Amino acid sequence: MNKPRSGGQRKRRGGGGGIRLVLRDELTRLHIIWRCVVMLLCYSD
């Protein structure tokens, strides 16, 4: 019995999708760090 692979779509196809995911993760990390810095600067007044 052959079962359809539902997780096959998530694997990298080509490489364009992987770059997009990495960029999104980096932007999310930078956004969180930026918000923390702004909050610390505003809170220190």
UniProtKB/TrEMBL annotation:
Similarity field: Belongs to the DVL/RTFL small polypeptides family.
Species this chain originates from: Setaria viridis (Green bristlegrass)
Cell compartment(s), UniProt: Cell membrane
Protein name: Uncharacterized protein
Membrane topology: Single-pass membrane protein
Listed GO biological process terms: negative regulation of cell population proliferation; shoot system development
Keywords assigned by UniProt, alphabetized: Cell membrane, Developmental protein, Membrane, Transmembrane, Transmembrane helix
Keyword Transmembrane helix: yes
GO cellular component, one term: plasma membrane
Hydrolase found in the keyword field: no
Record lineage: Eukaryota, Viridiplantae, Streptophyta, Embryophyta, Tracheophyta
Signal peptide bounds: none
